[in-house]
Structures are given as C-alpha cells and as structure tokens.
Amino acid sequence: MCSGTYILYRSAICSLLAGALTTLAGAAPVELPAPRILRAPSTSAISISLRATNKVRATVPVGTADGGANRTLQADGLYLYGVNGTAPALFPPVVVVRQGQTFNVRMINDLQPVPASASQDHPEVPFTNLHTHGVLVPTAAAANPCAAQGDNVFVVSNGPSTGAPCKPLPAESHHSGPAHGSAVLGQLSYRYPLFWMHPHRHGSSETQVGGGMSMLLYVDPLRGQGSVQRNFDVKWLMLKDLHLLPADSRSRVLTRNTKYDSEFCGRLAPLSEKEWALRRGGCPPADTGAASRSEGTWVFPVSGVIYPTITVRARKPQIWRITNASADASYRLQLVVTSGSAGTPKPLSMRVLALDGGTLDQDAARHPGFDELVLMPSARAELLIDPCRLGVGTMAGSRCILPKSDVIAEVRTLGLDTGDQERDAGDHWPAIALARVVFKADRTQRTREISPVQARMLEPDPIENPLRAVAPEQTTGAQPRHVTMLPHAKHAAHQAEAATSCSPVPLPAGHARVIRFGNGLAKTYWTHFGLLATSSRLEWGNNSVKLPDIDKDGTPKPGDYPSFGAPDSPSNLCIRYGSVERWVLVNDTDECHNFHIHQTRFRVREIALVEGEKANACLGDRKASKDFKTLHDNFPLPPGSRVVVDIPFTRPQQIGKFVYHCHILGHEDRGMIATVEVVP
Ligand SMILES: [Cu+2]
Fold it and tell me: Are residues 282 and 424 in the same domain?
C-alpha cells in the first residue's frame, strides 16, 4: 500500500502501517491468489470439515502500485474458518460442487470465550452456526438429526466441540449444557452458481463475519463449465474489510477493532487521483481532532490480499466472481484505466453475467454494460473481463487489436452513502482502490475475436422463475434417495411448539403482503432496527407501488416495528407450501437496507423511489433488475422506497422455519430479522 510515492504525501495510513509492515525480498507485485478448489471425487457427495476459530492471527500480503517490494501485515483477533484441517485463512478454499450433489459440512466449533468489553453492543460469545447463503437446505427426516435442522439459524453450537457428526442441537435459548458439535447437511439443488457460507448466530453475525469468517461455494451447472474453464481465466474476488487498532510497537501486530465506524476515514467526497493513490487497499483515519478517530487503520483485502494485482493476459479473457463478504460495508465498484490518462479516468463498461447467484437472462444480455456495480452486503456478481469488450483494445469490425504496451487499471469502490450526509443518516462507506489490474500488451498486434458470452450463462432458470406454474415442484431425480421429505411438525420435537402455533392465512388472489423496515424504539433510535412483519395484506389490483393504500392508516410509529429477540417465539409469517407470494417491501427509514430471504429467491417486479433522495445510489445497477427475470436473494432498499417482489415457496425443501432480514449484519443483529414458516 505504501510505495515511495506515498511517503511523499506523508500519508497517515503509511506512517501508521510503517511499523506494522514487514518487507520481504523480491519485487514482484502481489497477484490475486488463486484459491484451493475443493471438488467431490464422486458424483454423490462432498464432505468437508469446517473449524470455526477466533482470536487468530493472519498474515496479509500487501500489494503495491509499482511492483515494489512485497510486504505483509499481521492482523490479530480475527474470526476465520479452517477447512479440512488446514490453517484458518482470510481466503479459505472454495468448494465447487455439482448440481444435485449432497454437501456435508462437519462443523467444529473452536471459538474461545472473549472477555466482554464495555464498548461492544454485543459481547463476543463462543456460539456459532453455519448458513449457506443462497442454497436450499432441506428440513429432512428425523432419522437424520442434522438435516432435520434445515436452515434454522437459531440452532447453534454453544461452545468448543470436536465436530461430532450430526448431533442434534436444541435451540440456543434452551441450552446450558456442555459442548456440542453441529453439522449441516445441504442438498444443492439450486442451479445457479455463486454462493457463500457464513455464521448466522443472531447477535454475533456482525462480529464473526466482520472478523473474516466466511468462505465461497460454487455450484457447477450440469453442463457448460468445461468450456468456461477452457475459454476463460476464472478469478475469485472475495471482498472483506478489517478495522485494525495501531500496531504493537514490538510485535508489529495490529489487532482487529470490533467497533465499527463507517466514518472512520471521514465522509465521502470526490477524490483527486493523488488522493486515490493514498487509498490503495485501505484508508487512514479522518483527521477530525477526536482522539478516538486518530488511531488505527481500515483495510479492504481482496481474497486475503491487500491491493493485489490481477493480470489479464492478452489471449485469455477472464471471468471475475465477486462476493461482498463484508459484514456491513457496501461497495460501489468501478473499473478505471489509470495509465496514460489525465484528469479523472473514465470507467470501463462492465459486462455482467450473473448477479446474486442468478444468471442474467436474454434481456440482460442486450444490456450494454454497467459503469458501476453496487454490492451491498452478501451481493455477488460475475463479470466478463475481456479487454476487447471493455474497450481497452481498438475495434476493427467484430475484431479487436490490443495495445502494444500494458494498460494499467484499478478496481475501485467509489464509496457509498447509505443515507443523506446532510441529514446525518445511514453509513458512509469509504472510497478505496481495491486492486490493480494489468491488461497485458499484445506485441504481435494480431486481430482477435471478441470472446463469446457462453449461452448457458444467459439461460433463464426454468425451475425457479416464479412466472412459471406455481404447482408444487416434485422431488427431482437429482436428490439423494435417503432424504425423505416429511412435514415439519412431525420430525423435530423441539420445534413442535412453533409448528402448532403456525397456521397459514393465504393471501387472497390479487393481494400482496406488506413488509415494513423500520427503526425500533424511538428512545434507542440508532441501536434498534425492526421489521413490521405481520401478515398485512394489500389489495393489488392494477395499482403501482405508489399505492396510497399502503399508507392509508399512516406510517407506523417507531415502536411499531418489532425488533426481533426471541428465537422461540411464534413465526412472524406462516405460509402455505406451494404458494407464490407477492411482497411489497417498504423502507420507512432514512437509510438503505438490503432485503435477504433464506431458502428461496425472488423476482423484482417494481421499484418505486423517493425522487431526489441522495441515498438512492445504493440501488445502483439493480434499478435495471425489474426488466430482467433474474432471481435475487438480496436486494437494496433505498430510503422511502417500495420494492415489489414475487417469492416462490414451492419447493419441498422449504418446508420448515427460516428467516428474512436486512443483510447489513449490524442491523440484523439489532433486530431487523423475522421468521417465516412454510407449512404443508
Ligand atoms: Cu438494514
């Protein structure tokens, strides 16, 4: 991060890191690492062991702008996964499974107790669990107690364990016994590809995910991957961020600061190129004069490396698989050419192949591309990085000639205000130069075809499209024979109580359900968030989302939004298996949230925004989504917005209890989460 050039600017971040960086021999830029890929040897199942650790130290390589000496940074106090007995890592192996395979995770809870500190909203507790974001996890037969838990995030492992396979765990609130292991069995029947796994213990999600605990999961479709691997260089960009306290002067180790402050580096303002050069891979504290702000740094590693270089070879275009694995931070990505340009560089138009694990459709295929891409927490994107398509080369008809010398570019997040600065609302995520990109020269000057976009990437999903028949889907041949789907109430004794209190009231035809996002109790305005998650029903008719009906009884008062607290309370929503519901998501607050629902996906039908609202920026490229048939599992909700979505509850694996929530994990931990129960 700190080349000689930086020192000239007397960057605060450089002086802070100066004592913490260890210089290594060699001068090559630090390349974005290729992950270790874990694949199943057979067609039936893949099994991994996953060790949840905390208080761990990671060595983070630090890249430079000019290929100067390699450096590393030591960060302590992290939460990391160790996979299959290997050391816990910021960028753990990527699990690649095939469609229809069973994926077994043996979870080992190795979290150690951490003394509570007065500054924490939520003390660090050694409880954890696992959520496979975007993937269906069936609630299955009682004979398999691990599978019986489905995607119930209120089941946790509450202390160090040896990973005993498939030991049933009661809900945390019931539990005060000795150590237990937990495991998850998931049957991967979703067709589209980029998912991730992270802990989901209510109250600890922000601390654990923000400490680095997550890993990637990719589901190969039945066909087509071979040609993707042959034609493209696949790059995995896992975005995380770490607040770090100043380095210990003797050990040079920086310790993670669990206290989150989105304004640590100051509020968002346009940056000059000189200022961008000070933000490679991280940002220094804002010079506010306040003592609390002036200490530490904030780094944004990409796949475990701070400011890596991504080299794009002339004859091998790339596919970038990008995941926002930060707990709270939002990114507004641009790809800009920095070499040979004067003034503000122009963003290259990025070609998006898939969003949030859902492949874009033919409508999206005709889209000219996106100058910027907003990734709120948990959002994913797959991009086609072909220098010709990006305009790095010179076009000659349908062919292109690449430049004679290397072109240097940068992946940047422009920063994002999730609320209006002037109204002091929301968070103010910083502008960071995340990675350096080198488009290699083609000295042969031969013309080349533009890489084709693989047809399979543009195929809409025939199964999950809610426009299709709503008839309950039958168990497919791809599912393992030993999984028997039973009604939820029959097989999990500890859940029987909830099941009996859940009786679905179906939406009448032409009605929509209204879900309101609000701040909780007025007295604790900034610390509690809630969801008004009742079965409010709204006659849909021919109206748009500007429906006056929504507000005919007035906006709810701050105290009307329940802030989630008790895992064992009756489910907030009861839905009949086989329904496709229309939900109107209403953001009653003055900051952005992002809606995420487990165990299903949704199609966006309408988006209504408050005109002139500055924080509409969090919608970014997603405003085009209503024209696409893509199914999302998370979606931004700007302040005051209404977003209409269709959600299918038509798969047997969905029977059971799961949650929907804001994926800004600080909001989720503070109550912006609610339960839904699908009953047969
Ligand atoms: Cu939120």
Answer: yes
- Of 225, 254, 281, which residue constitutes the final position of a domain? 225
CA atoms of 39 and 58, how far apart (whole Å): 25
Q: Is residue 659 part of a domain?
A: yes
Check whether 306 has a pLDDT greater than 80. yes
Is the pLDDT confidence value at 476 over 50? no
Residue pair 377/324 in contact (Cβ under 8 Å)? The answer is yes
Is the same domain home to 286 and 205? no
Domain boundary pick from 225, 249, 274: 225
Residue 183's identity, in one-letter code, is: A
> Would 483 be classed as within a structural domain?
no
Distance 519 CA to ligand 1 centre (A): 9
| 217 close to 46: Cβ distance less than 8 angstroms | no
Q: For 244-286, how does the pLDDT look when each residue is reduced to its tens digit (9 = 90+)?
A: 988 888 888 999 988 878 888 988 888 998 899 999 999 988 8
Ligand 1 centroid–CA 619 distance in Å is: 13
Bridge partners for 401 per DSSP: 394
Tens digits of per-residue pLDDT, 120-178? 666 788 888 888 888 777 765 555 556 666 777 777 776 666 555 555 554 443 333 22
CATH number of the domain encompassing residue 116: 2.60.40.420
Q: Which two tokens stand for residue 640?
A: 């005051």
- In three-state secondary structure terms, 511 is strand
What would the mean pLDDT of 29-52 be, rounded to a whole number? Answer: 84
Q: How far apart are the CA of 176 and the centre of ligand 1, in A?
A: 31
Residue 127: inside a domain: yes
Question: What's the start-to-end Cα distance of the chain, in Å?
Answer: 56
Q: CB of 353 within 8 A of CB of 360?
A: yes
* Ligand 1 center from residue 122 Cα (angstroms): 17
- Return the closest-CA partner of residue 376 out of 346, 345, 355: 355
Same domain, 147 and 41: yes
Range with top average pLDDT, 369-383, 570-584, 663-677: 369-383
Total domains present in the chain: 3
What is the rounded distance in angstroms from the CA atom of residue 188 to the CA atom of residue 582? 25
What whole-number distance in Å separates Cα of residue 673 and Cα of residue 64?
A: 41
Asked if residue 276 and residue 218 are part of one domain, the reply reads no
How big is the chain, counted in residues?
680
For residue 353, the CA-to-ligand 1 centroid distance in Å is: 27
- 3-class SS of residue 676: strand
State the distance from the centre of ligand 1 to the C-alpha of 211, rounded, in angstroms: 19
CA–centroid distance, residue 661 to ligand 1 (Å): 8
Same domain membership, residue 237 and residue 170? no
CA 671 / ligand 1 centre spacing (Å): 10
Strands 656-662 and 537-539: unpaired
Instruction: Check whether residue 241 and residue 216 sit in a common domain.
Output: no
254 with 137, same domain?
A: no
Distance 594 CA to ligand 1 centre (A): 6
Whether 482 maps to a domain, the answer reads no
Residues 555 and 654 grouped into a single domain: yes
- Structural domain range at position 626: 498-679
The Cα–Cα gap between 323 and 91 comes to 12
CB 183 within 8 A of CB 150: no
Phi and psi angles of residue 602, each rounded to the nearest 5 degrees, phi first? -140, 155
Contact between 551 and 512 (Cβ < 8 Å): no
Q: Ligand 1 centre and the CA of 641: distance in Å?
A: 13
Write a three-state SS string for 45-100: EEEEEEEEEEEEEEEEEECCCCCCCCEEEEEEEEEEEEECCCCCECCCCEEEEECC
Secondary structure of residue 498 in the 3-state scheme: helix
Q: Please, is 612 exposed, middle or buried when counting C-beta atoms within 10 Å of its C-beta (0-12, 13-18, 19+)? A: exposed
